[in-house]
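Schema walkthrough. Field components (list of strings):
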Amino acid sequence: EPEVTQTPSHQVTQMGQEVILRCVPISNHLYFYWYRQILGQKVEFLVSFYNNEISEKSEIFDDQFSVERPDGSNFTLKIRSTKLEDSAMYFCASSDQARYGYTFGSGTRLTVV
Amino acid sequence: GQQLNQSPQSMFIQEGEDVSMNCTSSSIFNTWLWYKQDPGEGPVLLIALYKAGELTSNGRLTAQFGITRKDSFLNISASIPSDVGIYFCAGQLGGSEKLVFGKGTKLTVNP
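Field assembly_structure (string):
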């Protein structure tokens, strides 16, 4: 079964450093998303991306965050200057249509120290 | 922002028992989804509901999209140990791509 692949599975970074989280969505999908889940809490929407541009973003997705689809297969989330409160699981997801339930990756656990 | 109230927060049941959990909201959703999350993994889609009143089954799982479009429930029949995990409801508003998640129901099944 096709799956969304995320790397790395765990990243530890120092506060103030930049991190890039990587995702390979399912190959024929057109809609891409990033969500995050702080430990023990619910999953929260960050951003959606379609046709090479951001289509929707949450208030969490401020100027420190950016997304990119640098080639035909990867989808990245960059955090420019990490803060302690950025520590969370970050999930990438993709879908072939905007309305239907998407497929999530296994996540990247980001720990900011 | 939109809130989904999911209950119960946790459940402890014996293997073979049936389980029911639900989500309610003050907002009207166009789509309701139910996901299961195992520790250290991403949410896995169980059931998707697209029309008010829709009742959909997936094996031992049954979910319904409430008539008012403000609620949904998930039932699991004859629970087994591998049903253990956290179950999340998620709703999608009209005109939006984002999913709004509930806080989850943690299910423990005792053999």
